[in-house]
Amino acid sequence: MTSLFTDVAAVPESRGATAGLWARRAVITIFAVVAALGLLDVFGQGTTQTTAGTPAAVVHLTAPAAVRGGLFFQSRIEIRALRALEHPRLVLDEGWVEGMQVNSIEPAPVGEANRDGRVVLSYDRVDAGERLVVRLQFEVNPTNVGHRSYGLELDDADTRVAAIHRQITVFP
Q1: What distance in Å separates the CA atoms of residue 102 and residue 69, rounded to the nearest whole number?
Q2: Are 30 and 72 within one domain?
Q3: Are residues 53 and 27 in the same domain?
């Protein structure tokens, strides 16, 4: 039995077999690198926080900067009123709902409207010193690949109070 293995080891491998071995190793390495990059959050899901402040209010947006198709994620908007906001309205850029399934918005707005293609969520009065926290849950459509505007604007009725400008990247 030992001579069988020594005979096999004595025969040199063909160039095709050697090339095939290196091709398999290269493919496995590519898959390992993609998996490692996913673990390092290169393809999304980790959240980042963006803040905008004015004398009237401070707005914090906590949301992922990049997401993948099929992913469920949450965006959190926190408004701290420094003066009373009689008619607070969140005006969301088109990228918030472009190719995204809105699963829930908590608390539910008292009204929803459209302003030049942007979604407007209206809430009850927020007094000075109070805060309003809005959580929006989404699922990303798998065909929604690219960059989208993911900014928002806080208005008091039709007067802009604060604005956040940012992008979201959608990977396949």
Answers
A1: 14
A2: no
A3: no
Q: Which residues touch 79 (CB under 8 Å, ≥6 apart)?
A: 57, 58, 59, 85, 88, 126, 131, 132, 133, 134, 154
Split into its structural domains, the chain has a count of 2
Verify that 139 and 65 share a domain, yes or no. yes
20 pLDDT band, cuts 50/70/90, is confident
Strand order in the sheet with 118-122: 111-115, 118-122, 88-92, 152-156, 159-164
| Single-letter amino acid, residue 95 | G
Whether this model's pTM surpasses 0.90: no
Do 89 and 14 fall into the same domain? Answer: no
Residues 6+ apart with CB under 8 A from 74: 63, 135, 136, 137, 138
- Report how far apart the first and last C-alpha atoms of the chain are (Å, whole number): 52
Task: Write down the pLDDT at residue 51.
Answer: 95
Residue ranges making up the domain that contains 79? 47-171
